[in-house]
Backbone:
C-alpha cells in the first residue's frame, strides 16, 4: 500500500510512505498531520510503479 497526501487547496498528491497489508487485508501506518488535507491509501502492482485501486479519501482538519 502507498499512502498519499494532498494539502488543502492543492491538486498535487504527495507520496508519504508505504505499508504492507496483513493476511486479513488490514493495514496501518502512523503519521502526524501538520496541515489540513486529504489522505488516501492506494494498492500497487507488485512492481510498485502502477496504482491499482484507491481506498476512501479521509480529510484531516489540523487545529
Residues:
Amino acid at each position: 500500500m502507498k499512502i498519499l497526501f494532498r494539502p488543502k487547496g492543492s491538486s498535487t498528491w504527495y507520496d508519504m510512505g508505504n505499508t504492507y497489508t496483513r493476511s486479513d487485508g488490514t493495514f496501518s501506518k502512523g503519521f502526524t498531520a501538520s496541515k489540513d488535507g486529504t489522505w488516501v491509501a492506494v494498492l500497487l502492482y507488485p512492481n510498485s510503479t502502477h496504482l491499482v485501486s484507491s481506498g476512501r479519501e479521509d480529510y484531516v482538519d489540523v487545529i
Remarks:
- Strands lie at 2-7, 14-18, 37-44, 51-54, 58-60.
- The CA atoms of residues 3 and 11 lie 16 Å apart.
- The longest strand covers residues 37-44.
